[in-house]
Known about the structure:
This protein is mainly α. The chain contains two helices and no strands. The longest helix has 28 residues, at 12-39.
Amino acid sequence: xxxxxxxxxxxxxxxxxxxxxxxxxxxxxxxxxxxxxxxxxxx
Length: 43
């Protein structure tokens, strides 16, 4: 665990990659939610 914390917050490259990974997950889940809402039958 200490290795991962040092990898994430010890250097700017690790922090930047964590930001990129989490924003990618956020964008993908937003697009998935949008697709589910659009494909749901309209009442």
